[in-house]
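The protein record quoted for completeness.
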Amino acid sequence: MDKEKLIKEAIESWCLYGYTINKAFEFKDFLIESKPLENVLHSNSEEKIIQFISYVKSQIELLEEK
């Protein structure tokens, strides 16, 4: 997968994660910290971006089980 697509997927996953947190805990407009996303994108490592996406998706799945 090319790097631009990985970056887009990482951003979309992080946004979905924030939405899922709000939904799972019935928060209203809770904003998650963007630092983890920024750190992985600035690392310039495709491997780290892929690991980040995988981790975020696993956290989303856990929250959806609540």
Notes: DSSP finds three helices and no strands in the chain.
